[in-house]
Design a protein that fits this description.
The chain is of the alpha/beta class and about 450 residues long. About 45% of the residues lie in helices and about 10% in strands. The strands form two sheets. It has a six-stranded parallel β-sheet, with helices on one face. The chain has a six-stranded parallel β-sheet with strand order 9-8-7-10-11-12.
Length: about 450
Protein backbone atom coordinates (compact mmCIF):
# COMPACT_ATOMS: atom_id res chain seq x y z
CA UNK A 1 0.00 0.00 0.00
CA UNK A 2 1.61 3.22 -1.15
CA UNK A 3 1.17 6.09 1.30
CA UNK A 4 1.40 9.72 0.25
CA UNK A 5 0.87 12.90 2.21
CA UNK A 6 -2.88 13.30 1.70
CA UNK A 7 -3.55 15.70 4.54
CA UNK A 8 -3.81 18.85 2.39
CA UNK A 9 -6.87 20.38 0.76
CA UNK A 10 -5.56 19.66 -2.75
CA UNK A 11 -5.63 15.93 -2.04
CA UNK A 12 -9.25 15.46 -0.95
CA UNK A 13 -9.86 12.68 -3.48
CA UNK A 14 -6.73 10.91 -2.28
CA UNK A 15 -7.83 11.46 1.32
CA UNK A 16 -11.16 9.72 0.68
CA UNK A 17 -9.40 6.84 -1.06
CA UNK A 18 -6.92 6.37 1.78
CA UNK A 19 -9.61 6.55 4.44
CA UNK A 20 -11.44 3.76 2.64
CA UNK A 21 -8.25 1.68 2.53
CA UNK A 22 -7.58 2.30 6.22
CA UNK A 23 -11.13 1.28 7.19
CA UNK A 24 -10.62 -2.02 5.37
CA UNK A 25 -7.26 -2.58 7.08
CA UNK A 26 -8.55 -1.65 10.54
CA UNK A 27 -11.69 -3.78 10.17
CA UNK A 28 -9.48 -6.84 9.76
CA UNK A 29 -7.08 -5.84 12.52
CA UNK A 30 -9.70 -4.83 15.10
CA UNK A 31 -11.79 -7.94 14.52
CA UNK A 32 -8.71 -10.07 15.11
CA UNK A 33 -7.58 -8.11 18.17
CA UNK A 34 -11.01 -8.44 19.82
CA UNK A 35 -11.84 -11.89 18.41
CA UNK A 36 -15.09 -10.63 16.83
CA UNK A 37 -16.49 -10.54 13.31
CA UNK A 38 -18.12 -7.13 13.01
CA UNK A 39 -18.82 -5.45 9.70
CA UNK A 40 -16.73 -2.72 8.13
CA UNK A 41 -19.70 -0.40 8.73
CA UNK A 42 -19.45 -1.06 12.47
CA UNK A 43 -15.80 -0.04 12.51
CA UNK A 44 -16.45 2.95 10.27
CA UNK A 45 -18.93 4.28 12.82
CA UNK A 46 -16.66 3.58 15.77
CA UNK A 47 -13.25 4.58 14.40
CA UNK A 48 -14.01 7.53 12.10
CA UNK A 49 -12.69 10.12 14.54
CA UNK A 50 -9.38 8.31 14.93
CA UNK A 51 -8.98 7.52 11.22
CA UNK A 52 -9.69 11.14 10.34
CA UNK A 53 -7.09 12.27 12.88
CA UNK A 54 -4.31 10.04 11.58
CA UNK A 55 -5.06 11.02 7.98
CA UNK A 56 -4.91 14.71 8.84
CA UNK A 57 -1.67 14.27 10.80
CA UNK A 58 0.29 12.26 8.29
CA UNK A 59 3.58 14.02 9.02
CA UNK A 60 3.26 13.39 12.75
CA UNK A 61 2.75 9.65 12.33
CA UNK A 62 5.26 9.20 9.52
CA UNK A 63 8.04 9.73 12.02
CA UNK A 64 10.32 7.36 13.93
CA UNK A 65 10.03 9.57 17.00
CA UNK A 66 6.28 9.31 17.37
CA UNK A 67 5.16 10.35 20.86
CA UNK A 68 2.46 7.72 21.40
CA UNK A 69 -0.51 8.91 23.40
CA UNK A 70 -3.23 6.28 23.54
CA UNK A 71 -5.17 7.87 26.39
CA UNK A 72 -7.10 10.24 24.13
CA UNK A 73 -7.24 10.19 20.31
CA UNK A 74 -5.29 13.46 20.05
CA UNK A 75 -2.79 12.20 17.49
CA UNK A 76 0.93 11.67 17.67
CA UNK A 77 2.11 15.27 17.63
CA UNK A 78 4.54 15.90 20.45
CA UNK A 79 3.06 18.51 22.74
CA UNK A 80 4.15 20.11 25.98
CA UNK A 81 3.14 18.69 29.34
CA UNK A 82 1.11 21.87 29.94
CA UNK A 83 -0.92 21.45 26.76
CA UNK A 84 -1.47 17.75 27.39
CA UNK A 85 -2.53 18.52 30.96
CA UNK A 86 -5.11 21.06 29.74
CA UNK A 87 -6.41 18.56 27.18
CA UNK A 88 -6.97 15.96 29.88
CA UNK A 89 -8.43 18.56 32.20
CA UNK A 90 -11.04 19.64 29.62
CA UNK A 91 -11.94 16.04 28.98
CA UNK A 92 -12.22 15.31 32.69
CA UNK A 93 -14.54 18.29 33.02
CA UNK A 94 -16.85 16.77 30.39
CA UNK A 95 -16.64 13.42 32.20
CA UNK A 96 -17.74 15.11 35.41
CA UNK A 97 -20.41 17.20 33.69
CA UNK A 98 -22.04 14.19 32.00
CA UNK A 99 -21.47 11.62 34.77
CA UNK A 100 -25.19 11.20 35.52
CA UNK A 101 -26.37 10.92 31.93
CA UNK A 102 -25.98 7.18 31.42
CA UNK A 103 -29.28 6.39 33.17
CA UNK A 104 -31.02 8.99 30.99
CA UNK A 105 -29.46 7.42 27.90
CA UNK A 106 -30.63 3.94 28.87
CA UNK A 107 -34.15 5.24 29.56
CA UNK A 108 -34.35 6.81 26.10
CA UNK A 109 -32.96 3.68 24.45
CA UNK A 110 -35.60 1.60 26.19
CA UNK A 111 -38.58 3.85 25.50
CA UNK A 112 -37.99 5.59 22.15
CA UNK A 113 -37.83 4.16 18.65
CA UNK A 114 -36.56 7.35 16.93
CA UNK A 115 -33.56 8.91 18.65
CA UNK A 116 -31.44 11.98 17.85
CA UNK A 117 -27.71 11.85 18.52
CA UNK A 118 -26.78 15.49 17.88
CA UNK A 119 -28.09 18.92 18.89
CA UNK A 120 -27.14 20.47 15.52
CA UNK A 121 -30.70 20.03 14.33
CA UNK A 122 -31.41 23.49 15.75
CA UNK A 123 -35.04 24.20 16.57
CA UNK A 124 -36.49 21.53 14.26
CA UNK A 125 -36.18 17.82 15.02
CA UNK A 126 -36.85 15.20 12.32
CA UNK A 127 -40.37 13.82 12.04
CA UNK A 128 -41.18 11.30 14.76
CA UNK A 129 -38.23 12.25 16.96
CA UNK A 130 -38.96 13.36 20.51
CA UNK A 131 -35.67 12.85 22.32
CA UNK A 132 -32.03 13.89 21.85
CA UNK A 133 -29.60 11.47 23.46
CA UNK A 134 -27.55 13.37 26.08
CA UNK A 135 -23.77 13.32 25.95
CA UNK A 136 -21.79 10.88 28.04
CA UNK A 137 -18.00 11.10 28.24
CA UNK A 138 -16.13 8.02 29.36
CA UNK A 139 -12.55 8.53 30.49
CA UNK A 140 -10.27 5.69 29.33
CA UNK A 141 -7.26 6.56 31.52
CA UNK A 142 -8.55 4.19 34.21
CA UNK A 143 -8.12 1.17 31.97
CA UNK A 144 -4.97 -0.89 32.52
CA UNK A 145 -2.85 -1.76 29.54
CA UNK A 146 -4.01 -4.98 27.90
CA UNK A 147 -0.69 -6.58 26.99
CA UNK A 148 -2.28 -9.37 24.96
CA UNK A 149 -4.23 -6.99 22.72
CA UNK A 150 -1.36 -4.54 22.41
CA UNK A 151 0.87 -7.44 21.38
CA UNK A 152 -1.72 -8.38 18.76
CA UNK A 153 -1.53 -4.81 17.42
CA UNK A 154 2.27 -5.03 17.38
CA UNK A 155 2.12 -8.23 15.35
CA UNK A 156 -0.40 -6.63 12.95
CA UNK A 157 1.85 -3.60 12.49
CA UNK A 158 4.77 -5.82 11.52
CA UNK A 159 2.83 -6.98 8.46
CA UNK A 160 3.47 -3.55 6.94
CA UNK A 161 6.81 -2.05 6.02
CA UNK A 162 5.41 1.47 5.88
CA UNK A 163 6.34 3.46 9.00
CA UNK A 164 3.14 5.50 8.89
CA UNK A 165 0.94 2.40 8.89
CA UNK A 166 2.95 0.80 11.68
CA UNK A 167 2.57 3.86 13.87
CA UNK A 168 -1.17 4.38 13.40
CA UNK A 169 -1.79 0.71 14.19
CA UNK A 170 0.28 0.94 17.39
CA UNK A 171 -1.40 4.22 18.37
CA UNK A 172 -5.02 3.06 18.53
CA UNK A 173 -6.49 4.76 21.64
CA UNK A 174 -7.33 2.77 24.76
CA UNK A 175 -11.03 3.48 24.39
CA UNK A 176 -11.01 1.20 21.32
CA UNK A 177 -8.69 -1.46 22.74
CA UNK A 178 -8.58 -1.80 26.53
CA UNK A 179 -12.11 -0.41 27.03
CA UNK A 180 -13.78 -2.10 24.06
CA UNK A 181 -15.33 -5.10 25.79
CA UNK A 182 -16.44 -3.07 28.80
CA UNK A 183 -18.16 -0.39 26.71
CA UNK A 184 -19.80 -2.90 24.40
CA UNK A 185 -21.29 -4.66 27.43
CA UNK A 186 -22.47 -1.37 28.92
CA UNK A 187 -24.61 -0.52 25.88
CA UNK A 188 -27.99 -2.23 26.42
CA UNK A 189 -30.01 -3.46 23.45
CA UNK A 190 -33.74 -2.65 23.50
CA UNK A 191 -35.87 -3.61 20.49
CA UNK A 192 -32.93 -2.87 18.24
CA UNK A 193 -34.65 -3.98 15.03
CA UNK A 194 -37.20 -1.18 15.36
CA UNK A 195 -34.75 1.59 16.34
CA UNK A 196 -33.76 4.47 14.06
CA UNK A 197 -30.93 6.82 14.97
CA UNK A 198 -30.91 10.33 13.48
CA UNK A 199 -27.50 11.98 13.43
CA UNK A 200 -25.62 14.99 12.12
CA UNK A 201 -22.28 14.52 13.91
CA UNK A 202 -21.00 12.41 16.81
CA UNK A 203 -20.08 14.55 19.79
CA UNK A 204 -18.51 11.78 21.89
CA UNK A 205 -17.17 8.25 21.55
CA UNK A 206 -19.78 6.61 23.76
CA UNK A 207 -22.52 7.61 21.29
CA UNK A 208 -20.47 5.93 18.57
CA UNK A 209 -20.50 2.71 20.61
CA UNK A 210 -24.27 2.96 20.97
CA UNK A 211 -24.96 3.53 17.28
CA UNK A 212 -22.36 1.00 16.09
CA UNK A 213 -23.77 -1.77 18.32
CA UNK A 214 -27.39 -1.04 17.45
CA UNK A 215 -26.77 -0.77 13.70
CA UNK A 216 -24.75 -3.99 13.78
CA UNK A 217 -27.81 -5.64 15.33
CA UNK A 218 -30.35 -4.33 12.80
CA UNK A 219 -31.15 -0.72 13.72
CA UNK A 220 -31.40 1.98 11.05
CA UNK A 221 -29.11 5.00 10.79
CA UNK A 222 -30.33 8.20 9.13
CA UNK A 223 -27.66 10.80 8.44
CA UNK A 224 -28.32 14.52 7.97
CA UNK A 225 -26.36 17.24 6.18
CA UNK A 226 -25.27 19.86 8.70
CA UNK A 227 -23.50 22.56 6.67
CA UNK A 228 -22.67 23.92 3.24
CA UNK A 229 -20.37 22.37 0.62
CA UNK A 230 -22.14 19.00 0.74
CA UNK A 231 -23.13 17.98 -2.77
CA UNK A 232 -21.56 21.09 -4.29
CA UNK A 233 -18.01 19.76 -4.59
CA UNK A 234 -16.88 16.45 -6.04
CA UNK A 235 -14.63 15.38 -3.19
CA UNK A 236 -16.12 16.09 0.22
CA UNK A 237 -14.74 13.64 2.82
CA UNK A 238 -17.41 14.38 5.46
CA UNK A 239 -20.30 13.77 3.05
CA UNK A 240 -18.64 10.67 1.64
CA UNK A 241 -18.16 9.19 5.11
CA UNK A 242 -21.57 10.18 6.51
CA UNK A 243 -23.34 8.85 3.44
CA UNK A 244 -21.37 5.58 3.59
CA UNK A 245 -22.64 4.69 7.09
CA UNK A 246 -26.25 5.84 6.55
CA UNK A 247 -29.25 3.81 5.45
CA UNK A 248 -30.74 7.10 4.31
CA UNK A 249 -28.93 10.43 4.04
CA UNK A 250 -31.00 13.60 4.33
CA UNK A 251 -29.69 16.51 2.28
CA UNK A 252 -30.73 20.16 2.10
CA UNK A 253 -32.51 19.57 -1.20
CA UNK A 254 -30.20 17.75 -3.62
CA UNK A 255 -29.58 14.10 -4.55
CA UNK A 256 -26.45 12.38 -5.85
CA UNK A 257 -26.34 8.86 -4.39
CA UNK A 258 -29.16 6.37 -4.24
CA UNK A 259 -29.60 6.68 -0.47
CA UNK A 260 -29.69 10.52 -0.58
CA UNK A 261 -33.07 11.90 0.45
CA UNK A 262 -33.79 15.56 -0.48
CA UNK A 263 -34.91 17.06 2.83
CA UNK A 264 -34.61 20.65 4.06
CA UNK A 265 -32.03 22.92 5.72
CA UNK A 266 -33.16 22.36 9.30
CA UNK A 267 -30.01 23.88 10.79
CA UNK A 268 -30.66 27.17 8.98
CA UNK A 269 -34.14 27.36 10.53
CA UNK A 270 -32.57 28.42 13.83
CA UNK A 271 -30.73 31.25 12.06
CA UNK A 272 -33.88 32.39 10.26
CA UNK A 273 -35.82 32.54 13.53
CA UNK A 274 -33.13 34.71 15.14
CA UNK A 275 -32.80 36.94 12.08
CA UNK A 276 -36.52 37.59 11.84
CA UNK A 277 -36.79 38.35 15.57
CA UNK A 278 -33.86 40.81 15.46
CA UNK A 279 -34.74 44.48 15.06
CA UNK A 280 -31.77 46.70 14.14
CA UNK A 281 -30.94 49.50 11.73
CA UNK A 282 -28.46 49.31 8.86
CA UNK A 283 -25.09 50.23 10.32
CA UNK A 284 -22.52 49.01 7.79
CA UNK A 285 -22.28 49.53 4.03
CA UNK A 286 -20.72 46.11 3.63
CA UNK A 287 -19.55 43.19 5.72
CA UNK A 288 -16.47 41.22 4.64
CA UNK A 289 -16.33 37.66 5.98
CA UNK A 290 -13.02 35.78 6.03
CA UNK A 291 -12.68 32.02 6.17
CA UNK A 292 -10.45 30.08 8.53
CA UNK A 293 -6.79 31.03 8.22
CA UNK A 294 -4.71 27.97 7.29
CA UNK A 295 -1.17 27.55 5.99
CA UNK A 296 -2.33 27.14 2.39
CA UNK A 297 -4.72 30.13 2.28
CA UNK A 298 -3.49 32.72 4.78
CA UNK A 299 -1.45 34.79 2.30
CA UNK A 300 -4.27 34.69 -0.26
CA UNK A 301 -6.80 35.96 2.28
CA UNK A 302 -4.52 38.79 3.34
CA UNK A 303 -3.97 39.74 -0.31
CA UNK A 304 -7.73 39.78 -0.89
CA UNK A 305 -8.30 41.97 2.14
CA UNK A 306 -5.57 44.40 1.10
CA UNK A 307 -6.85 44.65 -2.48
CA UNK A 308 -10.37 45.34 -1.25
CA UNK A 309 -9.13 48.03 1.13
CA UNK A 310 -7.12 49.81 -1.57
CA UNK A 311 -9.70 49.63 -4.38
CA UNK A 312 -13.23 49.77 -2.94
CA UNK A 313 -15.05 53.07 -3.52
CA UNK A 314 -15.19 54.50 0.01
CA UNK A 315 -17.65 57.19 -1.04
CA UNK A 316 -20.16 54.40 -1.73
CA UNK A 317 -19.00 52.14 1.10
CA UNK A 318 -17.63 54.32 3.92
CA UNK A 319 -18.48 51.91 6.76
CA UNK A 320 -16.87 48.52 6.26
CA UNK A 321 -17.07 45.75 8.88
CA UNK A 322 -14.56 42.88 8.79
CA UNK A 323 -15.42 39.54 10.40
CA UNK A 324 -12.72 36.87 10.88
CA UNK A 325 -13.69 33.23 11.19
CA UNK A 326 -14.35 32.12 14.76
CA UNK A 327 -11.75 29.48 15.67
CA UNK A 328 -13.38 28.39 18.91
CA UNK A 329 -15.45 29.82 21.75
CA UNK A 330 -12.56 31.92 23.03
CA UNK A 331 -10.60 33.06 20.00
CA UNK A 332 -10.66 34.08 16.35
CA UNK A 333 -8.23 35.36 13.72
CA UNK A 334 -8.57 39.07 14.49
CA UNK A 335 -4.83 39.43 14.93
CA UNK A 336 -4.21 38.60 11.26
CA UNK A 337 -6.41 41.47 10.14
CA UNK A 338 -5.25 44.31 12.33
CA UNK A 339 -3.57 45.97 9.32
CA UNK A 340 -7.04 46.81 7.95
CA UNK A 341 -7.58 49.26 10.78
CA UNK A 342 -5.35 51.79 9.04
CA UNK A 343 -7.95 51.84 6.26
CA UNK A 344 -10.59 52.72 8.85
CA UNK A 345 -12.22 49.31 8.62
CA UNK A 346 -14.08 48.08 11.69
CA UNK A 347 -12.99 44.69 13.04
CA UNK A 348 -15.60 42.40 14.52
CA UNK A 349 -14.10 39.84 16.88
CA UNK A 350 -16.55 37.24 15.71
CA UNK A 351 -17.15 35.94 19.24
CA UNK A 352 -19.29 38.86 20.40
CA UNK A 353 -21.76 39.50 17.58
CA UNK A 354 -24.00 36.72 16.33
CA UNK A 355 -24.40 36.25 12.58
CA UNK A 356 -28.10 37.26 12.44
CA UNK A 357 -27.29 40.62 14.04
CA UNK A 358 -24.37 41.72 11.88
CA UNK A 359 -25.94 40.42 8.66
CA UNK A 360 -29.05 42.46 9.32
CA UNK A 361 -26.91 45.51 10.14
CA UNK A 362 -25.07 45.27 6.79
CA UNK A 363 -26.30 46.37 3.36
CA UNK A 364 -24.38 43.58 1.64
CA UNK A 365 -22.18 40.66 2.74
CA UNK A 366 -19.01 39.66 0.88
CA UNK A 367 -17.79 36.10 1.44
CA UNK A 368 -14.11 35.70 0.59
CA UNK A 369 -14.64 31.95 0.55
CA UNK A 370 -17.42 29.77 -0.82
CA UNK A 371 -18.94 27.18 -0.24
CA UNK A 372 -19.91 28.65 3.11
CA UNK A 373 -22.73 28.15 5.60
CA UNK A 374 -22.55 31.89 6.30
CA UNK A 375 -23.47 32.51 2.65
CA UNK A 376 -26.37 30.08 2.99
CA UNK A 377 -27.61 32.01 6.01
CA UNK A 378 -27.65 35.21 3.93
CA UNK A 379 -29.48 33.53 1.06
CA UNK A 380 -32.01 31.93 3.39
CA UNK A 381 -33.33 35.38 4.39
CA UNK A 382 -32.80 36.89 0.92
CA UNK A 383 -30.04 39.19 2.13
CA UNK A 384 -27.66 40.63 -0.54
CA UNK A 385 -24.47 38.56 -0.75
CA UNK A 386 -21.44 38.15 -3.03
CA UNK A 387 -19.26 35.03 -2.91
CA UNK A 388 -15.79 34.19 -4.17
CA UNK A 389 -15.64 30.55 -5.26
CA UNK A 390 -12.70 28.71 -3.70
CA UNK A 391 -12.95 25.38 -5.47
CA UNK A 392 -12.54 24.10 -9.00
CA UNK A 393 -13.98 20.71 -8.04
CA UNK A 394 -17.64 21.58 -8.54
CA UNK A 395 -19.81 18.45 -8.75
CA UNK A 396 -21.60 17.57 -11.98
CA UNK A 397 -24.92 17.98 -10.18
CA UNK A 398 -24.07 21.48 -8.91
CA UNK A 399 -22.41 22.86 -12.05
CA UNK A 400 -25.60 24.06 -13.83
CA UNK A 401 -26.71 25.89 -10.66
CA UNK A 402 -23.29 27.48 -10.23
CA UNK A 403 -23.43 28.80 -13.79
CA UNK A 404 -26.74 30.48 -13.01
CA UNK A 405 -25.29 32.09 -9.88
CA UNK A 406 -22.37 33.40 -11.90
CA UNK A 407 -24.82 34.85 -14.41
CA UNK A 408 -26.61 36.60 -11.55
CA UNK A 409 -23.27 38.02 -10.38
CA UNK A 410 -23.66 36.44 -6.94
CA UNK A 411 -20.69 34.14 -7.58
CA UNK A 412 -17.28 35.53 -8.58
CA UNK A 413 -13.85 34.02 -9.19
CA UNK A 414 -11.71 36.67 -7.54
CA UNK A 415 -11.68 39.78 -5.37
CA UNK A 416 -11.03 42.02 -8.41
CA UNK A 417 -14.36 41.00 -9.92
CA UNK A 418 -16.16 41.60 -6.61
CA UNK A 419 -14.69 45.08 -6.17
CA UNK A 420 -15.48 46.09 -9.76
CA UNK A 421 -19.06 44.91 -9.34
CA UNK A 422 -19.54 46.80 -6.08
CA UNK A 423 -18.05 50.00 -7.49
CA UNK A 424 -20.02 49.91 -10.75
CA UNK A 425 -23.49 48.83 -9.64
CA UNK A 426 -26.40 50.00 -7.54
CA UNK A 427 -26.69 47.15 -5.07
CA UNK A 428 -30.35 47.74 -4.22
CA UNK A 429 -31.46 47.69 -7.87
CA UNK A 430 -29.33 44.63 -8.62
CA UNK A 431 -30.61 42.64 -5.64
CA UNK A 432 -34.23 43.50 -6.46
CA UNK A 433 -33.72 41.88 -9.87
CA UNK A 434 -32.05 38.85 -8.25
CA UNK A 435 -35.06 38.23 -6.01
CA UNK A 436 -37.31 38.32 -9.06
CA UNK A 437 -35.14 35.84 -10.96
CA UNK A 438 -36.10 32.15 -10.88
CA UNK A 439 -32.45 31.11 -11.20
CA UNK A 440 -31.75 32.31 -7.65
CA UNK A 441 -34.74 30.43 -6.25
CA UNK A 442 -33.80 27.29 -8.18
CA UNK A 443 -30.41 27.35 -6.44
CA UNK A 444 -32.00 27.82 -3.04
CA UNK A 445 -34.54 25.03 -3.60
CA UNK A 446 -31.78 22.60 -4.52
CA UNK A 447 -29.16 23.48 -1.90
CA UNK A 448 -31.06 25.40 0.75
CA UNK A 449 -34.61 24.08 0.79
CA UNK A 450 -36.55 25.76 3.60
CA UNK A 451 -39.39 23.25 4.02
CA UNK A 452 -40.03 19.53 3.80
Amino acid sequence: MKIVDFSGRKNLQERIKKMDELFIIFTQIMNKVHNVNFSERFWRILLQGYISTVVSRYDDFNNKKVAFDVILPTGAKKVSFKRKFHTYLRYLFMVFKTRNNKSKINYILQNESNICISTLFGTTLPNGVKEILPDYYYFPIIAKKNHKKRKSLKIASENYSDLYLQNIILSVPKIFIEDFEKLMKEVPLFDEINKTFHITIFSNTYSRYIVAKYVENGAKLFGYQHGSNYGETRFHPAYYYENSISDKYHTWGWKINENDNPYFAFRIKKFIDKYESTTVDIKYDCLIVFGRFLDWNKDKYLEKGLFFAKNIDRTKYPNVLVRPRKENKRSDATGNLMFLKKYDFILDEGIRNEAPLIIKQSKIVILLHYPSTFAFECMSVNHPVLCIIETNEISDMALPYYRKMYELKIFHNDIESVVDFLNDNDINKWWKKVLEDQRFHDFKNNFLKNNI
